[in-house]
Amino acid sequence: MTAPATSDAELAPAPAAGADGGPRGTGSTATRALGAVVLAGAAALAGLGLFGTPEDVVQGALVRLLYIHPQAATTAYIGCFLTTVGSGVYLWRRSVWWDLVALASAEIGALFTALALITGSLWGRPAWGTYWVWDARLTSTAMLMLLLLGYLALRKLPGDTDVRARQAAVLGLLLLPNVILVRQSVVWWRTLHQLPTLDVTGTNISGLQLFTMMLGFAVFAVLFVWLLMHRFRVAWLERQRDEVLVDEAIRARVAEGSGR
Amino acid sequence: MFRDVALVAGKDLRIEWRSRVGINQIGPFAVLVLVLFAFALDPDRGVLAKATPGLYWIAVLLCGLLAIQRAFAVEVADGATDALRLSGIEPAALFLGKTLAVAAQLLVLAALLLVGVAVLYSATLGGWPLLMATVVSASVGIAGAGTLYGVLAAGLRVRETLLPLLLLPVLAPVLIGATRAFEAALAGTPADGWPWFGWLAVFAVIYLVAGAALFGPLLEEA
Fold first, then answer.
1. Cβ pair A186:B165 closer than 8 A
2. A220-239 burial code (b ≥16 CB/10 A, e <16)
3. Number of folded domains in chain A?
4. Where are the alpha helices (DSSP H) in B20-46?
5. CA distance A128 to A121
6. Residue B38 to residue A138: CA distance in whole angstroms
């Protein structure tokens, strides 16, 4: 592993030393503040979304999914985008920092993709009468999930860190182009056969409902950043453990053996 | 450059020809897949005839996967990848050569499967220009993406299980495009199919470029 540049350490854990000298956690003042914002925002979103906003004339209580579903999907695509950017920068500059950003955003992206798919099918069951339709948007999101699972499967494999990072970077770099290719082909395929399924955004929303929806986007964005920072720090510490601590342990054993 | 491409492709095809793995195993497997589809979808109910284009391309994908895994199993054994790197051939030429060899095998497989669906599924083949153009562009696309992901998985102990997971979602656009084009050709309305051929050609070009650019860093690990 190349020695991390000083700028690489920006998101690295604040050295709150534990008993053994290592950091005790991945929290820092900044992430605690972000976490508080997320909690407060989520509480406000739940309050407004579940109780504060009125039911829709057509969709009834179903409209409440509008406050979390598009937000989850958007965040998922942001995670996918960030993975591609991080992988590209890693291949170009070989910066460990960006490699870990790619890993962290892929994992969190997969989480939000799963959330989007689950909330989407929960909405689809009462609204369309079925959990799943082969709509362009649904199908391409499901394919995004599979592509992300493949990427994460590769990252989970043991082996040389540098080698794995380079392989993952190639996969990650192709992630967004693949999503675009899949999405485009699915769109053409479906529109040649049937009209696009009904448009959620066609629902007439305004006032408090619109505000709650926008609040949802903000809360999900902050949540994404918060999770990303923590996940990044965990990955960073794992890297440190693999690269540094093992070296130290080996040195200690060697010294022991030679009786020094 | 072109000489190197031909050299690598020639080497791979010679190995395949001499080992007879393609003829003795992958070819019969292709026929087996067609027979299994027939078992699953009772030939007398007419489902088979309607689904022929889709089943055909799924069979091509499954057999192509085997050919791609072969192409790298050959290299990983005995550390042949190191020899390839020492040969001084540019990674881009290596990629194009291996892609060409896989594409050539896919073309043979595709031809075999065409005979297979004509005989076993009584498919009436028609619209030959579109049919041929689709087979060629899809084969190059599958071979390009397959070679890139194949070298990525080649050095891993779990390559047999990982490659399908990585590669098949990526090839989804090829499956969609090639199936639609085939449907149009078989239905006698090739005008509907030509845009899909264009799509397959775009896919193939994207993966040839991406593979030529990214093969170098991946080869070091394989």
1. no
2. bbbbbbbbbbbbbbbbbbeb
3. 1
4. 21, 27-40
5. 9
6. 30
User: Low-confidence residues of chain A, pLDDT below 70?
Assistant: 1-24, 191-205, 259-260
Mean pLDDT value across chain A: 83
Q: In whole angstroms, what is the distance from residue A158 CA to residue A98 CA?
A: 20
Which of helix, strand or coil describes residue A231? helix
> How do residues A163-175 score in pLDDT, each as one tens digit?
889 999 999 999 9
- Nearest-CB residue to B218 (from A159, A167, A192): A167
What does the block give as tokens for A135?
């709509």
Give residue A6's pLDDT: 41
Q: Residue A215 sits in which domain range?
A: 32-197+204-257
B172/chain A closest Cα distance in angstroms = 7
Q: What is the mean pLDDT of residues B189-194?
A: 88
Residues counted in chain A? 260
Distance CA(A89)–CA(A165), nearest Å, equals 12
From the list B141, B124, B129, B143, the residue with the least C-alpha distance to B181 is: B129
**Residue B11, both tokens:** 């080497």
pLDDT score at A198: 47
Nearest by CB to A167, which of B173, B199, B221?
Answer: B221
Give pLDDT, residue A260: 54
For residue B84, which of B18, B3, B7 has the smallest C-alpha distance? B7
**In the A/B pair of chains, how many CB contacts fall below 8 A?**
70
**What value does the mean pLDDT take over residues B87-116?**
93
Other C-beta atoms closer than 10 Å to the C-beta of A3 total 8
Contacts of B165 in chain A (CB under 8 A): 146, 149-150, 153
Per the domain annotation, does A111 fall within a domain? yes
Q: Which of B176, B182, B192 to mutate to test the interface with A (most CBs of A within 10 A)?
A: B176
**Among B149, B200, B164, residue whose Cα is nearest residue B65:** B164
Number of compact structural domains in chain B: 1
CA B144/CA B149 separation, integer angstroms: 9
Domain residues for B68?
A: 2-219
Q: Is A65 exposed, middle or buried (0-12, 13-18, 19+ CB in 10 A)?
A: buried
Going by C-alpha positions, the residue among A203, A217, A213, A202 that lies closest to residue A52 is A213
